[in-house]
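Rotation project, supervised by the postdoc (A.L.). Task for the rotation student: set up a whole-complex structure prediction and record inputs and outputs verbatim in this book. Inputs entered:
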Amino acid sequence: MKGPPPDDLELLVRQAEGGDAQALEQLRQELSSGRLDVYMSRVGDLARHAEAALLDVATGEKRLMREGIQRQMEAMRRELAGSAASPLERLMVERLVICWAWANYLDSVCVQLFTKPPDTDFGEFMTCLQTRAHRRFLDAARTLAQIRRLKFPAVQLNVAERQINVTG
Amino acid sequence: MGWEKRKRSGLYYTRSIRRNGRVIRQYIGCGAIGQMAAAQDARRRAERCQRAEAIEVQKRRLEGLEETVEMFCRACDLITKANLLPGGIHYDRKNRVWRTRKKSHEGTAP
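Outputs recorded:
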């Protein structure tokens, strides 16, 4: 069973966001039929490509360093995903780990800039990249936390006159 | 910077430098002194060009990677919306939060 091509999915989501009931219903059908899983696996491939490209740039020919960073990313994935993560959560974890690695690499490049003669243009370019990477990392962390909260909403308990909120 | 032709001393090497926001012509000399200064300037120019080229290569590499990561994150956003919209959850752009759409209560007393 083939999933919808990416362009159609983007259009469908935009229409559904805009309040198109037909588009929303079609999206519901795509979700329940499992066709979105195919697209999700394509996005997973994109994640692996992004990770490989990042490691190529960050480590070059240093295989030991590459393996070290790969293990660190893998450990983060295991810790963040836990044992019962849904496919969407696993994808969000993947996003968070890649954004973390990218932001960290840019931080290390910026630190090295301080040891060299200053180049204003390059410094501005790096600051811009670094700011975007950090914002993306925070968005990824926020999205994962919110998805988890939506999955396990907080339960409000009223004990005597006190209100206690418990999260799952 | 460059060589100036003078009647008595032949070719004379000069250098233009910026000092306090103004461009000043520095007269170096002729013969061996001028040649040494010209070689030094040529070496510095070549080093500056090499540094600029290395920076451009690094910029292009980083921009390429930035585009890849951005493309991946946009695809993740799309998948997230595709999964959550059917459940009545939408993204509140202003507050950067995923929210459940409130259902309207028709016919209820205020």
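Student's summary: Strands of chain B lie at 2-6, 10-19, 22-30, 89-92, 97-100.
Supervisor addendum: The mean pLDDT of chain B is 85.
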